[in-house]
């Protein structure tokens, strides 16, 4: 079932018309499946060129999907709604907050 879903996704990605954004999570999962699911060498000790070819084709489809840029004009009303993206947390502060939330969730689950 999993291989079939990967095949369908790959076919959809190849036949889609750019510009498009290939979902990175699925792409990485498919690439991992391709790389770790196939041996580097054949039983004869020769390089598995089929694996290399499949990997190249996959990466090429992702690359081509990114060649044509989106033609999206900035919307000042949306940008100003988000405060010109100046009101945000630094990475360290986000990490500290996430740790605090985890601790609180663990305490709630214990009670």
Instruction: Report the β-strand fraction as a percent range.
Output: under 5%
Classify the secondary structure makeup into a structural class: mainly alpha
Helix run count: 5
Q: Give the uncertain stretches in residue-range form.
A: none
Q: What value does the average pLDDT take? A: 85
Helix content: 55-70%
SSE series: HHHHH
How many individual β-strands? Answer: 0
Q: What summary fits the major beta sheet? A: none
- The N- to C-terminal Cα distance equals 40 Å
- From the spread of the alpha carbons, the general shape counts as flat
- Overall radius of gyration: 22 Å
Structure description:
This protein is mainly α and 111 residues long. The protein is 63% helix and 0% strand. The chain has 5 helices and no strands. Helix 2 packs antiparallel against helix 3. The longest helix has 20 residues. The mean pLDDT is 85.
Write the layout of secondary structure elements.
Blueprint: H1 2-15, H2 24-36, H3 49-65, H4 76-81, H5 91-110
Keywords:
111 residues, mainly alpha, 63% helix, flat
In short:
The chain is mainly alpha-helical.
């Amino acid at each position: 079932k999993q291989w079939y879903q990967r095949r369908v996704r790959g076919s959809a990605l190849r036949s889609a018309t750019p510009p498009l954004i290939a979902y990175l999570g699925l792409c990485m999962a498919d690439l991992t499946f391709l790389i770790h699911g196939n041996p580097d060498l054949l039983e004869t000790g020769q390089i598995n060129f089929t694996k290399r070819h499949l990997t190249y084709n996959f990466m090429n489809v992702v690359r081509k999907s990114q060649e044509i840029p989106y033609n999206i004009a900035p919307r000042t009303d949306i940008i100003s709604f988000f405060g010109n993206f100046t009101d945000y947390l630094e990475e360290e502060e986000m990490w500290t907050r996430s740790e605090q939330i985890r601790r609180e969730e663990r305490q709630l689950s214990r009670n």
